[in-house]
Amino acid sequence: MATAVANQAPHQFGKEAEEKKINGGFVVPETNSFGETFRDYNAEGEKHARVENFYKINHKNQTYDFVKKMREEYIKMDKMEMSIWECCELLNDVVDESDLDSDLPQMEHLLQTAESIRKDYPDEDWLHLTGLIHDLGKVLLLPQFGGLPYWAVVGDTYPVGCAFDESILHHKYFKENPDYHNPAYNTKYGVYSENCGLDNVLMSWGHDDYMYLVARENKTTLPPAALFIIRNHSFYPLHTGGAYRHLMNEEDHENLKWLQIFNKYELYSKATELIDVEKVKPYYLSLIEKYFPNKKLKW
Ligand SMILES: O[C@H]1[C@H](O)[C@@H](O)[C@H](O)[C@@H](O)[C@H]1O
Ligand SMILES: [Fe+2]
Ligand SMILES: [Fe+2]
């Protein structure tokens, strides 16, 4: 097993064999594209200070009422009509300021994610497409989509309407969020009930929930696990922190297994080489056709 894994992706995550760690059949690269530890939110430096400030504003403003309003506004899908690929191309112009591990245009990140999954899971074509589209919701930053500020589009996500878990990055800034002091929203269950299912839990507003709504409202034929991944991929307190188990139902537990696989490729492919778009485009166009029967989607 160990040898098989070592042979599997030697060129994928850099050349230094000693820099690799085997993690459940997955080769984890030691450092990101800047030569730093992945997701090191406590490190010093200008970039880290900027990201901390991003979370400060995010935590202050993501309230239950704000999220409800945004969902109501964006579920209308009245902003734009375009295909999935057209949306990918829009992301050529988008860089994610909340991301410590990559400063590439988001289109590159999508291709890196999808292609790295494809290498290890060649038969799960739905997961390749999930990789390609998981961050398309970042178009919310663009003027045609409302030009939302970064704090309402990117960064890790977490439930609103119940207590903010300690494992959420820079948790201390929630003291500035009115919900933190509201007894209706600041208990373990808040407005929810035991094992109510994550579909019934409102998440901080951003690109994840938006893209989930786009896929669902446009009647994608992608499996439920794909929708779960899209909606929860930034929910680090859940898939990495192990929190919020009390809100999950049985189906969520099944879907979480796929999300945890997805997350490794999403995060660690940020250390890989760039992909030749023209070379892989026909493959992804065929997947889009398969899983999005309506050519033009409403956004
Ligand atoms: O900064 C990043 C970025 O916004 C990603 O798209 C998101 O999925 C991550 O969770 C987050 O940490
Ligand atoms: Fe991503
Ligand atoms: Fe994301």
Automatic annotation (TrEMBL):
<keyword id="KW-0479">Metal-binding</keyword>
<dbReference type="GO" id="GO:0050113">
    <property type="term" value="F:inositol oxygenase activity"/>
</dbReference>
<comment type="similarity">
    <text>Belongs to the myo-inositol oxygenase family.</text>
</comment>
<keyword id="KW-0408">Iron</keyword>
<dbReference type="InterPro" id="IPR007828">
    <property type="entry name" value="Inositol_oxygenase"/>
</dbReference>
<feature type="binding site">
    <location>
        <begin position="155"/>
        <end position="156"/>
    </location>
    <ligand>
        <name>substrate</name>
    </ligand>
</feature>
<dbReference type="GO" id="GO:0005737">
    <property type="term" value="C:cytoplasm"/>
</dbReference>
<keyword id="KW-0560">Oxidoreductase</keyword>
<feature type="binding site">
    <location>
        <begin position="96"/>
        <end position="98"/>
    </location>
    <ligand>
        <name>substrate</name>
    </ligand>
</feature>
<feature type="binding site">
    <location>
        <position position="138"/>
    </location>
    <ligand>
        <name>substrate</name>
    </ligand>
</feature>
<feature type="binding site">
    <location>
        <position position="134"/>
    </location>
    <ligand>
        <name>Fe cation</name>
    </ligand>
</feature>
<dbReference type="GO" id="GO:0019310">
    <property type="term" value="P:inositol catabolic process"/>
</dbReference>
<keyword id="KW-0963">Cytoplasm</keyword>
<keyword id="KW-0060">Ascorbate biosynthesis</keyword>
<feature type="binding site">
    <location>
        <begin position="233"/>
        <end position="234"/>
    </location>
    <ligand>
        <name>substrate</name>
    </ligand>
</feature>
<feature type="binding site">
    <location>
        <position position="39"/>
    </location>
    <ligand>
        <name>substrate</name>
    </ligand>
</feature>
<dbReference type="Pfam" id="PF05153">
    <property type="entry name" value="MIOX"/>
</dbReference>
<protein>
    <recommendedName>
        <fullName>Inositol oxygenase</fullName>
        <ecNumber>1.13.99.1</ecNumber>
    </recommendedName>
</protein>
<feature type="compositionally biased region" description="Polar residues">
    <location>
        <begin position="1"/>
        <end position="10"/>
    </location>
</feature>
<comment type="pathway">
    <text>Polyol metabolism; myo-inositol degradation into D-glucuronate; D-glucuronate from myo-inositol: step 1/1.</text>
</comment>
<feature type="binding site">
    <location>
        <position position="109"/>
    </location>
    <ligand>
        <name>Fe cation</name>
    </ligand>
</feature>
<feature type="binding site">
    <location>
        <position position="207"/>
    </location>
    <ligand>
        <name>Fe cation</name>
    </ligand>
</feature>
<feature type="region of interest" description="Disordered">
    <location>
        <begin position="1"/>
        <end position="21"/>
    </location>
</feature>
<dbReference type="GO" id="GO:0005506">
    <property type="term" value="F:iron ion binding"/>
</dbReference>
<feature type="binding site">
    <location>
        <position position="135"/>
    </location>
    <ligand>
        <name>Fe cation</name>
    </ligand>
</feature>
<dbReference type="GO" id="GO:0019853">
    <property type="term" value="P:L-ascorbic acid biosynthetic process"/>
</dbReference>
<feature type="binding site">
    <location>
        <position position="233"/>
    </location>
    <ligand>
        <name>Fe cation</name>
    </ligand>
</feature>
